[in-house]
Amino acid sequence: MKQTPLYQSLTFCCLALFFSTNVLAVEYSASAFGTLGGAISDNKITYQRYIDDNGTLMRDSLTGVQVDAKFNDQWAATAQLVLASATDEDDVIKPQVKWTTLSYRPSNDWLIRAGRMSLGGLLNQQNLDVGVSYDMARLPCEVYLLSSSYDYDGLSIAKTWNTSTHEITLDASMGMQSRDYRSYYNARGKAAFYPADITSGGFVLTVTDYERTTYKAGWHFSEIDPDEPEGLLSEYTFRQLGGGFYTLGEPINKATTHLNTFFLGTSFPLEKFFVTCEGTAILAQDFEAAPPTFAAYISVSRKLNNWTPYLTYAQMWTNGMDTWREVQGATPVPPFGVTQAVIDNAASAMAIYEQNSWMLGTSYAFTPKQKVKAEAMLTHVGERSAMFDGDIAHENVMVYSLSYNFAF
Question: For residue 268, is it within any domain?
């Protein structure tokens, strides 16, 4: 991922503050975290970029280090580096700069942060890479891969109110990101990555009751500006052939598109169980290649000494699949430059999701900072799911996962 000028400026500010501070007075701490995770499915079609019947360590494995510096009661800095699968190409591991911020707390109820951070309203958004911090083998992809508002360079301002029963925090943020979007093309048999510059901002409201109940709601607005000169595919067109047949016409592109993302989640104890629910909605403006998509999950767990078994159900669905069906039903007309391969590529590149998953698993905590997790996941695909690289419809796929997670 490219560094934006804003991030470079913030890095310079962090260094300037560091060197202008009495080094002997700075409090430092360092930590490391990681996951060694393997996953294998019963299907040759690749799922979530890496999982197939050959097995993989690429999907879940990562390692990271974090350094924290406290300059005084108001100023602090954090730098985090993670080694994980690349975001701009497959089957490659790259170092990635994650949470790297300069923070200023003028009072106990205000927090201002500048630098690289996650923007978004998911419950585990900020600790996604630290697998030991949650019990599921992996956070449901239906929600967490769909709503990936990570690694923005920007500014966050949070205000906290404390009552006798609750803590309420409102976080307003704004940031920029250079990101590579991935599309898989069936006829080519491989994926392509398309770089884009994204400007995003929004609000996240968090309410906790000082115990174990949390409520979270958020909204983010994004502008996507692709680096490709032709822009983004805004609308598919069709050419009538007569007799009820038609073929693809010239697509209509536009320079930028806008995206609204909504988050809603809660986690709370229920008798001897613990319940987590989250939902998200992704609404793009005038972007037929990515129709409105919704996702949600519910997870129920119970702690039994060192064991924490859980059962999770997740579902995602796309509203407005008519265009995708129409693209699939087009007739190849090679003289017009429309072959079956062109049709297959056009259909498979669309962000269409219709799937649900059941996840049964458990974690075992050796210590509070070391866990082993195991999970069996059954995913049912409806007409189409872009989580899979290839043609798969109306099928069940089993995925088995095992991982060791740590933080020191």
Answer: yes
Stated length of the chain: 408
Question: In whole angstroms, what is the distance from residue 377 CA to residue 39 CA?
Answer: 10
Q: Is residue 176 part of a domain?
A: yes
Based on the structure, what is the number of domains in the chain?
Answer: 1
Task: Give residue 274's domain range.
Answer: 33-61+131-407
CB 247 within 8 A of CB 241: yes
Q: What is the pLDDT along the chain (408 residues), one digit of tens a residue?
A: 444 544 454 554 555 455 444 455 899 999 999 999 999 999 999 999 999 999 999 999 999 999 999 999 999 999 999 999 998 899 999 999 999 999 999 999 999 999 999 888 999 988 999 999 999 999 999 999 877 667 899 999 999 999 999 999 999 999 999 989 899 999 899 999 999 999 999 999 999 998 899 999 999 999 999 998 788 888 999 999 999 999 999 999 888 999 999 999 999 999 999 999 999 999 998 888 889 999 999 999 999 999 999 999 999 999 988 999 999 999 999 999 999 999 999 999 899 999 999 999 999 999 999 999 999 999 999 999 999 999 999 999 999 999 999 999
Helix (H) or strand (E) segment spanning residue 91: none
Q: Please name the residue that has the structure tokens 């038609």.
A: 246
Q: Is residue 160 part of a domain?
A: yes
- What gap in Å lies between CA 191 and CA 91, rounded to an integer? 11
Query: Does residue 101 fall inside a structural domain?
Result: no
